[in-house]
Amino acid sequence: MSSPSIQSSVNYEKKYFSLWKVILPVFIGVGVVVLMLWHESHKDNLSEVWHGIHFTWRTWLCIGLGFIFMWGRDFGLTWRFRALTDRQLSWLKAYKVDFLCEFTSCITPSAVGGSSLGMVFLNSQGIELGRATTLMITTLFLDELFFVIACPIVILLTPASEIFASDAGDFSHGIKFTFWIVYAFLAAWTFILFAGIIWRPEWIRKILIKISQWKWVKKWSSNLVELGDNMVATSKELRKKPFRFWLEVFGGTAVSWTSRYLVVNALFLGFIPTDDHWQWVILARQFVIWVVLMVSPTPGGSGISEWIFSNYYGDLVPTVGMALIMAVFWRIISYYVYLGIGAAIVPGWLRETYERFHNKPKVTKDTPKEETIET
């Protein structure tokens, strides 16, 4: 399986994780919240905007519950990384890979995602680079498969007028249109991944090679060929896996995403206690939000996430001020915490990876076979 060299990966990572990429999403997110508050203060008295917002013991308890649900998200992905590597990664190393991937998601547009550099993170924890690429393609397939299976089930069990907030006018229509367009693309991409890594990898590889010969994609031709090669290699490994393996890794995927969605349910319980029916609607809308955010052009969906949350859940929240406060807590729990943790651990990870590469003995033609180090 072809893959980039460790040297180029190290150099790229040092350039990739620059300080401004941490500051930019914070600036965008906070800026959007301030602008929304400013806009509302021109429509109503600012004190009225904040009217009805009370922090009680129940509120803080449910905010804590939101953090527990996000830990469930980390547990699911860590469990999945351990299962995918046949327990080669310890819990600590798997958690480290999880946080690094999430940090990458925080500083890149949502369409790129944290898996784009996951193979480098896995390699830094002792997984051979070629196998790490195989594993990250598998995680991508599992994530997309979860959305493709779960979204129709959730929507079928929820009235369309409630999941798409039909009384919200153009905003609701825009959300609904974007959701189905993105979902259709997601379903097609999932089928391509299924065919490429399980069903007919040779077919997909041939198609990608054909596409790479088109003039207008020449710039990405090597990447397309490499993707085809990686899919074939991935297929060879995955076809050997027993059904129990698939049950475990998909279980970890389901636990992770469901826990992430339940953060909003916890916030609603704290700020606006609702009955079981509306709790289901709140959960269903999370599926819609995350699918829509997959095409967000801002790093980690900054700004767009806060805006969508405040508007999409606006019909369930009594005041705009409360909707914004809930949006801020949602982003703190599910986004800014990971941005901070990533910013704290990435410098040490870069230093560790850099030193490991430069301290590695160089292989020459005079090096005895028994001393040869594979890279």
Could you list some keywords that capture this structure?
375 residues; mainly alpha; disordered C terminus; 15 helices
Give a nutshell description of this structure.
The protein has helices at residues 6-16, 19-43, 46-49, 57-84, 91-107, 118-124, 129-156, 160-163, 170-199, 201-212, 221-238, 243-271, 276-293, 304-312, 320-358. With 375 residues, the protein is mostly helical.
Radius of gyration over all CA atoms, rounded:
22 Å
- The parts where pLDDT drops under 50 for at least 5 residues are 1-10, 369-375
The helix/strand order is HHHHHHHHHHHHHHH
Q: Number of DSSP strands?
A: 0
Structural class: mainly alpha
Oligomer: single chain
Strand content: under 5%
Tally of separate helices? 15
- Characterize the main sheet: none
Overall shape: it is globular
Distance between the termini: 13 Å
Query: What fraction, in percent, of the residue positions are helical?
Result: over 70%
Report mean pLDDT, rounded to a whole number: 81
Overall description:
By secondary structure, the protein is an all-alpha fold. Helix content is 74%, strand content 0%. Helix 4 runs antiparallel to helix 12, helix 4 packs parallel to helix 15 and helix 7 packs across helix 9. The two termini are 13 Å apart. The N terminus and C terminus are likely disordered.
Secondary-structure blueprint:
Blueprint: H1 6-16, H2 19-43, H3 46-49, H4 57-84, H5 91-107, H6 118-124, H7 129-156, H8 160-163, H9 170-199, H10 201-212, H11 221-238, H12 243-271, H13 276-293, H14 304-312, H15 320-358
